[in-house]
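Record type: monomer structure entry
Structure origin: computed from sequence
Chain ID: A
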Amino acid sequence: MARSPSEDEAAAIAAAIERFRAETAPAPGGEGESISPWQRAALVEGVSAKGTVEDSEGGTRWPS
């Protein structure tokens, strides 16, 4: 004959289920549009391309 769980057992079961759901839930999505890895790389390259290059003799500089 099956018996019903006590209040403490029921609370422990509910807590275990909630913990499982929290640990296995997908990561929350960010607000707004996210930048793709390709777009992020392009932006980083574009920013680093704004630097200047100096020749080996320390003279002429030009944008890279």
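Annotation 1: The longest strand covers residues 52-54.
Annotation 2: The chain has a mean pLDDT of 79.
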